[in-house]
Write a structure and sequence with these properties.
The protein has 328 residues and is mainly alpha-helical. It has 13 helices and 5 strands. α9 packs antiparallel against α12. The protein is elongated and about 80 Å long. The two termini are 42 Å apart. The structure holds iron/sulfur cluster. The site of iron/sulfur cluster (SF4) has 14 residues, from α10 and α12.
Length: 328
């Protein structure tokens, strides 16, 4: 069946992925493959804007790629590659930077937030981040970018950059990407307060063993009003129940919904049930991951092949871009 368009999405190489990454991005990446030609990029250059120690960059890239593959990214259909393996992106970034007003970049809330987060490392790359992001998208002639509501302004900015380029050089070589609005669920960490994140150590890794997973689940924060086993709870405010709704069969969800409210089930029992269901859900993923990991060089091969296919598109785009700009 013909595909509806070309989707681009990128993610930083953060190593082994967790449930938040899975529900917030990977699951959607896998689903999009049915209808779209997908280009999925591990954006290692973007990572350099915030990390100074690159010792684990390669390993984190490979671990993440392994998770993507085990979760169902099909490398024979989708292009999966590492950003820096297609150096054309840096050339396009430079060219696009000439049509991007500096004032707009420094006024972006995300840039201001970064200054707050890393006042000792306010580098040029941070300012140019949205320009590099635009280069990522348009280099591969992607017409759709899946984003959550909070990311939509970034894509709007990318569209502005494309319009500026096409207007200045009287061309149509760059495609203005459309927003594919995607529901990105906010997945809370085991602390029940903050978004799940590795840096906060409130995460559950997809590739954790069943026993590690069970331990992490047992640490999950629940309804604070349930002090004693006999206190009734409120599943509506409990993150364990939220996760039951994602990973447990409906019968278990219904049972917890009733029994929690009348103290018919303890939190330990409830969490154990969730851990069992979660482990069952992740079983095929873990088996596939172990299979891939047992074949050394597989991930590298996939990424090499992806880079070659991505580069083929990139080279053609850059020929058109150079001609449009009038570079000698
Ligand atoms: S029984 Fe389950 S849903 Fe209810 S408070 Fe405890 S962990 Fe949360």
């Amino acid at each position: 069946m013909p595909k509806k368009g070309r989707v681009f999405s990128g993610a930083r190489p953060t190593g082994r992925q967790h449930l938040g990454n899975y529900l917030g991005a990977i699951k959607n990446y896998v689903a999009l493959q049915a209808d779209y030609e997908c280009v999925y990029c591990i954006v290692d250059l973007h990572a350099l804007t915030t990390i100074e120690d690159t010792e684990n960059l390669k390993q984190n890239t490979n671990e993440m790629a392994l998770d993507w593959l085990a979760a169902g990214i099909r490398p024979d259909e989708s292009i999966m590659f590492v950003q820096s393996h297609v150096p054309e992106v840096t050339e396009l970034h430079t060219i696009l930077s000439m049509v991007t007003p500096l004032g707009k970049l420094t006024e972006l809330p995300t840039f201001k937030e970064k200054i707050r987060q890393q006042p000792d490392n306010v580098n040029y790359g941070l300012v140019g981040y949205p320009v590099l992001m635009t280069a990522d998208i348009v280099l591969y002639k992607s017409n759709l970018v899946p984003v959550g509501i909070d990311q939509a302004p970034h894509l709007e900015f990318a569209r502005e950059i494309v319009r500026s380029f096409n207007y200045r050089y009287r061309t149509h070589v760059l495609i203005e990407p459309q927003i594919k609005m995607t529901e990105v669920p906010k997945v809370l960490g085991i602390d029940g307060k903050e978004k799940m994140s590795k840096s906060l150590n409130n995460h559950i890794e997809l590739a954790a063993t069943p026993e590690e997973t069970r331990k992490r689940v047992l640490e999950m924060f629940t309804d604070p009003a349930r002090v004693k086993r006999t206190d009734p709870g409120n599943p509506d405010i409990c993150n364990v129940f939220t996760m039951h709704k994602v990973f447990s069969p409906q019968a278990d969800v219904d049972m917890v919904n009733v029994e929690c409210r009348r103290a018919g089930i303890s939190c330990v029992e409830c969490k154990t049930l969730y851990a069992t269901n979660l482990n069952q859900h992740l079983g095929p993923f873990r088996a596939k991951r172990a299979e891939l990991a047992a074949m050394p060089g597989t991930v590298e091969e996939v990424l090499d092949d992806g880079a070659q296919r991505a580069r083929k598109i990139a080279r053609k785009t850059m020929e058109e871009v150079r001609a449009a700009v009038g570079l000698p």
